[in-house]
Amino acid sequence: MTRHLTSLCLFCGSSVGDDPLYAEAADALGREMAAAGVQLVYGGGHVGLMGTAAEAVMGGGGRVVGFIPEHLTRLEAAFQGATELHVVENMHVRKHAMFQRSDAFVVFPGGFGTLDETFEILTWRQLGIHNKPVILADIGGYWQPLLALVDHMIEHRFARPANRDLFTVVERVERILPTIEEELGRAGVGTVAADADERL
Question: 30 in a domain, yes or no?
């Protein structure tokens, strides 16, 4: 069965970073998602790249679903203008909820929190819990050091060469949605293990 992208999870920074390119890319993705009718699922904040993308989706008439832990509602300024805003118990509940509501994942520049979300979703894919597309948006070459680290782990046999296939690197915003659609068109991509909830 061919799957289509209807809901995309964005992992990204609660800061805008040091280059306007990052926020411009987040805004562009948000506008493209709204135009394509793709719902944004994200961490629920109204700051940094998170807020930029959410505002762009809402501004374009799209849907935004946010999940934010109660202890972060002040720190990350929960986006009250979201279509749905869910205040959840903790970080794990947040990540699980975002996973359940998304067809695919895209990773924008960010810090430790972004890496936490990214490596968890990649680990779940590696373990066969899901086979949803994961896109690493290498905006301005931001993720090159991370890609070098992955190669380093493979070189020293702490990761397998096949681990590189757990994600797809995309450098241009306009290629993100088409790349996900292409991946969802492949057999088996977009699926979730029947016992996924029991294994998480």
Answer: yes
> Token pair of 174, please?
């306009």
Residue 2 belongs to a domain:
no
Structural domain for 51, as ranges: 7-188
CA-nearest of 128, 98, 131, 127 to 113 is 98
SS (H, E, C) 98-146: HHHCCCEEEECCCCHHHHHHHHHHHHHHHCCCECCCEEEECHHHCCHHH
Q: Tell me phi and psi for residue 170, to 5 degrees.
A: -125, 130
Q: Is residue 25 part of a domain?
A: yes
Distance CA 190, CA 194 (A): 13
Cα–Cα distance measured from residue 125 to residue 102, given in angstroms and rounded to the nearest whole number: 14
CATH number of the domain where residue 162 is located: 3.40.50.450
Q: Total structural domains in the chain? A: 1
Model confidence pTM above 0.70:
yes
* Tens digit of pLDDT at every position of the chain (200 positions): 568 999 999 999 999 999 999 999 999 999 999 999 999 999 999 999 999 999 999 999 999 999 999 998 877 789 999 999 999 999 999 999 999 999 999 999 999 999 999 999 999 999 999 999 999 999 999 999 999 999 999 999 999 999 999 999 999 999 999 999 999 999 788 889 888 888 88
CA distance 16 to 18: 7
